[in-house]
Design brief:
single chain, disordered N terminus, ten-stranded mixed beta sheet, 3 domains, 5 helices, mainly beta
C-alpha cells in the first residue's frame, strides 16, 4: 500500500477519511471491514495530491512568516529574521532582503548557490559563515549594508557585486573575507576593513572606495588580481605576494608591501592572466621579452635582478644575453632551464649569484657565472659549463659554495675557477672534468669529494688549494698538477 501526505486544506478528503475510520470501528463482519480498507486505500492513492517537496529556503522562509513566491522560488524578507543552523539557497532560488525593517542575522551557515539580493541589512557574526559558491551571486544595493563582524566569515567562489557598504570587523571583533581563485568582487560602493583580513586569490575590481584601517590586512595572494580604478585609503597593511598582480592607482597612506619584490609596470598588466607564473610576472616586471613557449629573454641591454624568490617551472626558460643578478636576499628555484649565452661579439652573458640558487633542472653556461653565494645542485640537476664558458666560485673577499648533492651532475668542458674562498662539495653527485673539450679546473680553494664520483679526464691546476677525497668518495682519472689529492681513510 502507498501512503502519501495529505494537505491540511483538503477538507473534503479529510471528511471522507474520517467517515471510513469511524465505520471501521462499528462494522463487525470481516468482509465489510475488508471492503472499507480497500476503499480507504483508493482514496489515499487516487484522490489525494502528492506532497510538495519544500526546499530548506522555503521551509525557513515560511517558518519566519515571510513571503514565499513558489513561481519565482523567491523569499522576500521585510522584517528581522534569524537564519537556521544551516541554510542552503539552491541555484534556482533567491533571497530578497528588502524594506525598512528587513534584516538577516546569521550566526549559522548559509550556502548560496543562487542569489542573495540585499536591499536592507545583513549581519554575519559569531563565527557565522556565508559561502557563495560557484555561480552564486550576492548583490548589495546602493545605500544598504552587509556587516561581517564578531568573527564572521564570508567565502566567495562566485560573484559579489557591492554598490552599498560592506563592513568587515569593528574596533573589537575581527571579520574575514576570502575571495577564492574562482571568485570575483566588484566594488562600486564602499568596502571598509575595520579589523580582520581580506584574503584574495581571485579578482577584486575596485571602482569605488576601499578603506583599510590600522587593524586590517589585505593579502593579495598568488593568482590574485586587484584592479584599482577607484581609491584605496590604506592605514593598515596590503601584502602583494609573489604571483599576485596589483594594477592601477597606488593607495593613499601606507605603501603596498611587495612580498617577493616584484613591481609590475602598468604597461604590462594587461598581458597577464591569473595563470601567469612567477617567471612571466618577473619577466614583464624587468621589462624583458616574454614568449608564449615559456621563455624569458634577457636582451643585450638588459641588466636584471632577483630580490626575493623566483621559481622557474618545468618547461620554462631564462635565456640570458646580458646580466642576471641574484641579490643577497634572492633565491632562484630552477626546475626548468637557464641558458647563459655568449657569442663573443654582440652579446656576452653574465650571471652573478650573491644569494641562493637551487637547481633541479638544467643550467648551461656559455658566458661567465660568478658565484659568491650558495649554489645547490640537487637531484636531476645538471650544470653544464660549455666551451668558452667560465664558472668563478668565490674570491679574495667573498665565499662561494657549490654543493653538488646526490643525483646532481656537473659537467665541465671549459674552465672552472675555484678561488681562494671557494668551496666545492660533492655530496653524492657526479663531477666530470672532460678532457676532450679542454676541461680545466683551477683550484685555489677547497674541493671536498665526500661521497660522490669525480671523473677527471682533463686538467686540474692545484698549486695553492686543497682537494680532499673522503672514504665514500671516488676519484678517477688524471691526478692534479701541483698538490696531490689528499685521501682520507675510513674510520672503522
Amino acid at each position: 500500500m502507498t501512503f502519501v501526505t495529505v494537505g491540511a486544506n483538503d477538507d473534503v478528503l479529510w471528511s471522507i477519511i474520517q467517515v471510513i475510520l469511524v465505520s471501521l470501528k462499528r462494522i463487525e463482519t470481516m468482509k465489510n471491514k475488508t471492503l472499507l480498507i480497500v476503499l480507504l486505500a483508493c482514496v489515499l492513492v487516487f484522490t489525494s495530491k502528492p506532497a510538495h517537496a519544500a526546499s530548506e529556503l522555503e521551509v525557513w522562509c515560511l517558518a519566519e512568516g515571510q513571503a514565499w513566491d513558489s513561481a519565482a522560488s523567491t523569499c522576500t524578507i521585510t522584517e528581522r529574521v534569524s537564519s537556521p543552523v544551516v541554510l542552503t539557497v539552491l541555484a534556482s532560488e533567491t533571497i530578497n532582503n528588502s524594506g525598512d525593517k528587513g534584516v538577516i542575522v546569521n550566526w549559522g551557515i548559509i550556502n548560496n548557490y543562487g542569489t542573495i539580493d540585499n536591499d536592507a541589512k545583513i549581519y554575519n557574526g559569531f563565527l557565522g559563515t556565508i559561502t557563495s559558491n560557484k555561480n552564486g551571486t550576492i548583490y548589495n544595493s546602493d545605500r544598504f549594508t552587509i556587516n561581517n563582524r564578531y568573527g564572521g566569515i564570508i567565502n566567495n567562489h562566485g560573484t559579489i557585486n557591492n554598490d552599498g557598504r560592506i563592513s568587515n570587523g569593528d574596533y573589537r571583533y575581527l571579520g574575514i573575507i576570502t575571495n577564492y581563485n574562482d571568485g570575483t568582487i566588484n566594488n562600486n560602493g564602499g568596502l571598509f576593513g575595520e579589523a580582520g583580513t581580506i584574503n584574495n586569490d581571485g579578482t577584486i575590481n575596485n571602482d569605488g572606495r576601499i578603506y583599510n584601517s590600522d587593524r586590517f590586512t589585505i593579502n593579495n595572494r598568488y593568482g590574485g588580481i586587484i584592479n584599482n580604478n577607484g581609491s584605496i585609503n590604506n592605514r593598515g597593511t596590503i601584502n602583494n605576494y609573489c604571483g599576485a598582480i596589483y594594477v592601477g592607482e597606488q593607495p593613499e597612506g601606507n605603501d603596498i608591501v611587495y612580498v617577493c619584490e616584484i613591481f609590475l609596470p602598468l604597461v604590462f598588466s594587461s598581458k597577464l592572466t591569473r595563470a601567469s607564473s612567477e617567471l612571466e610576472i618577473w619577466c614583464y616586471a624587468q621589462e624583458q621579452a616574454w614568449f608564449t613557449d615559456g621563455s624569458c629573454d634577457i636582451g643585450e641591454d638588459g641588466y636584471v635582478s632577483v630580490i626575493g624568490t623566483l621559481t622557474v617551472l618545468p618547461g620554462e626558460r631564462i635565456n640570458n644575453y646580458n646580466h642576471l643578478s641574484n641579490q643577497g636576499n634572492g633565491t632562484i628555484n630552477n626546475y626548468g632551464t637557464i641558458n647563459n649565452y655568449n657569442d663573443g661579439y654582440e652579446y656576452y652573458g653574465y650571471i652573478t649569484n650573491d644569494g641562493t640558487i637551487n637547481n633541479y633542472g638544467t643550467i648551461t653556461n656559455y658566458g661567465t657565472f660568478n658565484n659568491y653565494g650558495t649554489f645547490n645542485n640537487n637531484e636531476n640537476g645538471i650544470i653544464k659549463n660549455s666551451y668558452v664558458g667560465t664558472i668563478k666560485n668565490g674570491s679574495f673577499d667573498y665565499t662561494g659554495t657549490i654543493n653538488n648533492n646526490r643525483g646532481g651532475t656537473i659537467k665541465n668542458y671549459d674552465t672552472i675557477e675555484n678561488r681562494n674562498n671557494g668551496i666545492i662539495n660533492n655530496n653524492g653527485g657526479t663531477i666530470v672534468n672532460d678532457g676532450d673539450d679542454s676541461g680545466t679546473i683551477e683550484n685555489d680553494g677547497t674541493i671536498n669529494n665526500y661521497s660522490g664520483t669525480f671523473n677527471n679526464d682533463g686538467i686540474i691546476f692545484n698549486y695553492r688549494g686543497a682537494i680532499n677525497n673522503y672514504c665514500s668518495g671516488i676519484y678517477n682519472g688524471w691526478p692534479p698538477v701541483g698538490i696531490p689529492v689528499k685521501y682520507h681513510s675510513c674510520r672503522i
